[in-house]
Amino acid sequence: GTIELRAVGGDDHEMPWRTLEIVPPVKIESFRVQLTPPSYTGEPSTTAPENGSQLRALVGTRLQIKAKANRPIQAARWHDPARPEPMKGRVNEPQVAANRKKLKQGQPTVEFEVTITKPGSATHRLSLVDKDGFENASALQLEIVGIADPSPVVALDQPAVDQLVTPNAVVSLLATAKDERRLKEIAIEFRAEVFNVLNRPAL
Known about the structure:
Elements: E1 2-5, E2 18-21, E3 28-36, E4 46-47, E5 54-58, E6 62-69, E7 73-79, E8 87-88, E9 90-92, E10 97-99, E11 102-104, E12 109-115, E13 120-130, E14 135-147, E15 153-158, E16 174-178
Parallel strand pairs: 5-14
Antiparallel strand pairs: 1-2, 3-4, 3-6, 6-12, 7-8, 7-13, 9-12, 10-11, 13-14, 15-16
């Protein structure tokens, strides 16, 4: 909307009216996040529900964030509590297209890439600066929850205790491994030590 104003004093009413245009802050109309898990998981990239307010992902997951603003912007910054300085986003301004003899300005998009570096919850925010220099310091808030991936649990079930065997003995081994995610590889590492039983000191 607009407001018209002027200054008057006594019988002086000659000052022309000035028009003040009220412009709401630039805002995000929609955003989308693509999640790429750590490579060791072997899991494919997924897309989070559009315009969600919270994301949960493994530590090491890479987030590709793409947001659409409602009008042209000159700068965008992503504020991560784990970083001392905000990240500058890549602003993509669409081409102005003719539409029935009128110029129509498309909606700009901004892109960021963020990696979850530690477990726990943190609130990230996106700030936008429009072409006139006005800033919306909290155009978007997103809670990102980093989930730790605990190490696999491995147990040697057989043999249950240390054993002394002959050089040609066949030893049966039984081990179990568990993980909250799928196991990519299971292997047994061993080391052979040779003891001279005949030279052992007498008890």
